[in-house]
């Protein structure tokens, strides 16, 4: 084969290609794609060199267990409401000043994301920031992208800020054990290994977001706009009256829907001065009933002709929220952990299960109008729902949703805040503190006998402590974990091993190292940063790390450079995917509520990505050398 390519390498590269296509197109959920790749690696063992034991090694990887533990710890923190309280305090400070609102947004998201996994931080803060924008008469579009970007930047402050850092550390430690990489200075990262560079990146990013970035941000959702206008529902929400001669008089709502092959939903019945919302299926329609209906114009015309209904007119948001105590409108976001991903509103019996009416939804920046009930739900989709106060409270407590509005009476365990903060401090402290430095120091000498533990040990101990001190209840442990992230990690880790063992990493490393003939070493380092950033904006950040780090180490070895510096460049680039909404989960969380278009992320994130490529690579060169 040409260019030193062997059959083994070709098979592994083919699997990498398939994985990249599936990740980019979202033809399958990312965790399913990872499992497909893992099984294929084991089935094709004669060529991939991945045994069954190596194939499932991702499940026992310290990185996987650490990420799992940190997700649980992050949930414990969120259950206490400490992050929400901090956000609300800063919201009070911000008031209706747009500059202060932006400062409050990035000021909370950035630093907090260094110590709590940044994905849950954004999930926690989306409703806080959305309410801040609403109350301060500011477009949420001006605040939500900065929320996501600041959380990514803050995730680079410590080892535990993001799963990407933890995985990169694990891959570096595994490569350090390989004889061919001896003497390259590879090692597992310490807790604050790259904090100084992380601070520089965070400060530069915040300055950009509050100056150039703010001017580039659109106002997709206008402050004065109501949901009916925002979701362009004027032609889709209508009032009709049941006539005396209507065949639907005396028929239940459930039977009307079953008997009429049209796309419509009855959202509310007004009768004799009383309004009925959910549940409506068993309600019998009577002559004179005023029905609030969601449908399209074509279906409405056919419905009126078919069933003897008189058209009254379009519905306003005020009419949908006539009684704030009884019902309201709110946006809910589908996170990656939701069991609704891949389901449709019809197949999930959404309306009956959650006692809500779905008025509209936005998917990948586009409003879905036709066959809404039969459109598969994706991560990041935003549903506009009408529900009673009780239903909204239940939605806010359901792990299948992120509700873009804080509940009026949140059920936080505020009395557990000291316990949760102490546990997180202990997890970080015992993993980071070199207790031996106190040896021989008066008074503090006794501390020198305390061992320094691996992060996986302290994180697991923190989970146990959370349960013992009542911060989390035992059943909540399982609900706390984004299992798709765990399966993704478990699936892509053996892919990285296959690239190394078949010599694919060496082949690619040599190819990239050849750029050293006309580029200085720092230029090769910059190429790796840019290549990883571009790849991460299309596929999973964790997959990018697994694929790129072995190649980066090989390239560094070939050009006689600092391999550790190359790993850091890959890790920082993989953790800051600004240019597309699909490159990082936090971007998907803000995609719908901000009303963004796909191009908005590139317009705001592209210049930031380019700026940070120079800042990060330059910082690595100064702090670690190349």
Structure commentary:
Helix content is 55%, strand content 9%. Among the domains are: 89 residues, Regulator of K+ conductance, C-terminal domain (Alpha-Beta Plaits), CATH 3.30.70; 75 residues, 2-Layer Sandwich (Alpha-Beta Plaits), CATH 3.30.70. The protein has a five-stranded antiparallel sheet with strand order 3-2-4-1-5, covered by helices on one side. Strands 8-7-9-6-10 form a five-stranded antiparallel sheet. The protein is globular. Helix 6 runs parallel beside helix 21, helix 24 crosses helix 26 and helix 25 runs antiparallel to helix 29. It has 626 residues and is of the alpha+beta class. The two termini are 34 Å apart. The model has no long low-confidence stretch (mean pLDDT 82).
Entry keywords:
626 residues; alpha+beta; Alpha-Beta Plaits; five-stranded antiparallel beta sheet; 10 strands; 9% strand; globular
List the helices and strands and how they pair.
Elements: H1 7-25, H2 30-43, H3 45-48, H4 52-55, H5 57-60, H6 62-80, H7 82-94, H8 98-113, H9 118-135, H10 141-154, H11 163-176, H12 195-210, H13 212-216, H14 227-230, E1 237-242, H15 253-259, E2 264-271, E3 274-276, E4 290-295, H16 297-307, E5 309-314, H17 317-320, E6 327-333, H18 350-354, E7 356-363, E8 366-368, E9 382-388, H19 389-396, E10 402-403, H20 417-432, H21 455-468, H22 474-480, H23 483-501, H24 504-513, H25 521-536, H26 541-559, H27 563-574, H28 585-591, H29 598-623
Antiparallel strand pairs: 1-4, 1-5, 2-3, 2-4, 6-9, 6-10, 7-8, 7-9
Helix pairs in contact: 1-2, 2-23, 6-11, 6-20, 6-21, 6-22, 6-23, 7-8, 7-9, 8-9, 8-10, 9-10, 9-28, 10-12, 10-28, 11-26, 11-27, 12-29, 20-21, 23-26, 24-26, 25-26, 25-27, 25-29, 26-27, 27-29
Transmembrane segments: 6-25, 56-77, 143-169, 189-210, 420-438, 450-469, 481-499, 519-539, 559-584, 604-624
Organism: Salarchaeum japonicum
Protein name: SLC13 family permease
